[in-house]
Amino acid sequence: MAAPARKNNYFAIWISVAVVAALVLVGALVVWMNNTAAAPGAAPEGPGINSSTGAIAVGDGADEVDVWFDFYCPHCQDFEDVYGPTLDELVTSGDITLNLHPVALSGLNSASGTDFSKRSASALYCVATQDTDAAFAFTQTLLSADVTGAGWTDEQLIALAADSGVTGIDECVTQRTYVDFVDAQTREIPAAPNGGQGTPTLVINGEYISLTGDVNVDLVDRLS
Asked: Residues 117-154: pLDDT tens digits?
C-alpha cells in the first residue's frame, strides 16, 4: 500500500506546483494588463512641451498659470468666454507663462461614438509639437466654438490646425497618436479642495483656484 500512497503524494505535489504556477502567471498577467492600461503612450515632444508635466507652455512670464480643459466641456467654453481674453492679454504682455493641459473627461463624447474629447486633445498635441503659438490659437478657436453632437471630424481639426498655422500633421491627427497620452494626463488633473476632479481647473503658481467668475479675484489679483 506504500507505493500508491507515494504516487498520490507526488500527484498532490504536482497539482500544488501547477496551481501555484498558474496563480503566478495570472498575477503577472494582471500586472501587465494594469501597466498597459495605465501606460501614457507616445509622449509629444517639442520646444514648448514640458516633458515632465505634459503641459504646452505659451509665453514666458514669471507667473505660472495652469489650465486643464476638455474641448467637449461646456463649462470650459464658458471659462474661455470669461477668462480667455485676460489670459491672452497676460500672455501677450509677458506677465504669465500659460501652461495648457488638454484632457478628456467629458462623458458625452462616448455617446457620440467619435471620442471627440480625446481626438481633439490629441490633435492639439500634434499642433504643439510643431508650434506652441499655433497650439494656443488652435485652443482658443476650439474653446470658443459651440461643439455639440458628434463634434468636429478629423478633417475639420486638420483644417483648423492649418488655419492656426500648422500643416503636415494629417497622419498624426487621423492616427490619434497622443490619445493614450491624453488618457494618462486626464488621470493627473489636480484634485479640488473637496477631493473632486473636473474641468476647467485653474492653478496659479501652484495654488488651486476655486473659480468665482470674477477674473480679477480669481486671476489678476493673484499675480506677482
From this structure: 999 999 999 999 999 999 999 999 999 998 888 899 99
Cell match 515632465: residue?
52
Q: Which of 79, 46, 197, 201 is nearest to 87 (CA)?
A: 79
pLDDT in tens, 160-192: 999 999 999 999 999 999 999 999 999 999 999
**47 inside domain:** no
Task: List the Cα angle 60/65/66 in 5-degree steps.
Answer: 115
49 occurs within a structural domain = no
Same domain, residue pair 93 and 184 = yes
User: In the chain, how many domains are there?
Assistant: 2
